[in-house]
Amino acid sequence: MWIDPFLISRKMRESIDMLNIVQVVGYKNSGKTTLMKQLIQYFSETKVKVGTLKHHGHGGDVNLPKGTDSASQFEAGSLISGVQGESITQLTFHNLEIDELIKMYTMLPIDLLLVEGYKRADYPKIVLVKNREDLSLLDELSNIIAVGTLDSALMIDIGYPTFDLNNLDQNITKLASYITDK
Amino acid sequence: MWIDPFLISRKMRESIDMLNIVQVVGYKNSGKTTLMKQLIQYFSETKVKVGTLKHHGHGGDVNLPKGTDSASQFEAGSLISGVQGESITQLTFHNLEIDELIKMYTMLPIDLLLVEGYKRADYPKIVLVKNREDLSLLDELSNIIAVGTLDSALMIDIGYPTFDLNNLDQNITKLASYITDK
């Protein structure tokens, strides 16, 4: 039997390339969390296996419940503490760069990773704008595929496909196509 | 420049092989959680980068705090929900086979993975026994490197290096050497 020497490396590369990654970014109260939830539901219903990653942007920290085994192992010096329960596994670790973090997601059986936040990362982005001032984001950020807004007055002359977040139920299929076809 | 076609595959393989994995197993109340903590502290102090994984064996589930973004995304259908805070990241997902889970750990900068539980997995094991009945574990389990017990009467004729968990402070260096040198 002839074994392709590139097989393992190609398999590895393909698994990273084949994970479709899209970001939802915008300032506070621009509608990110709601849009994320709508997209998760839409894709789950269409049998796309979705994973999510959220940057907790309010200066807070993730809550590691005191007294749990995970907290106790983490405090003792474990750099990554994992607990597997009856149906759910939870891993807790010190922050990594987003690219390193995404390598962990490539080990899981998902097709699409929706990322909330991390404006400065370079993955394809849906940018949410809530007023005219927010439009400066469109000049600052890379790799924009669509723009969403709660203010329909902003839906002219933006230069990107634009979606009214108030009527997203009617347009989510179209927005989803920008994610799957890009 | 000549590029070794096996380079990426070898790098991948090495990163998996080079993660030292050791399990701590035993029945309930045999001292697993305490030994895990002692080992984490010992290795952290000796600059070994430790990660941990615990199988929550009491029929309970991992607690996913209601009302958090992570819980909300998970309930909406996300198969893996991650939240990055100021210093800590937490990933929540449906259980995987232990070998798949360990692939995620290989993406992180750790040298040693201490696994609590998963008796039937095949990684090198420290088996904890609390009474004579527990000794049957030594016939049932694979890949045993050492035995620990809180009952010094069990420390004869076991056929494996055996450690008194009551006096572990004095012997932890020796136990650790079974982990690092195996």
UniProtKB/TrEMBL annotation, chains A, B:
GO terms for molecular function: GTP binding. GO terms for biological process: Mo-molybdopterin cofactor biosynthetic process. InterPro entries: MGD_biosynthesis_adapter, MobB_dom, P-loop_NTPase. It comes from the Bacteria. Residues 21-147 form the Molybdopterin-guanine dinucleotide biosynthesis protein B (MobB) domain. Pfam families: MobB. This is Molybdopterin-guanine dinucleotide biosynthesis protein B.
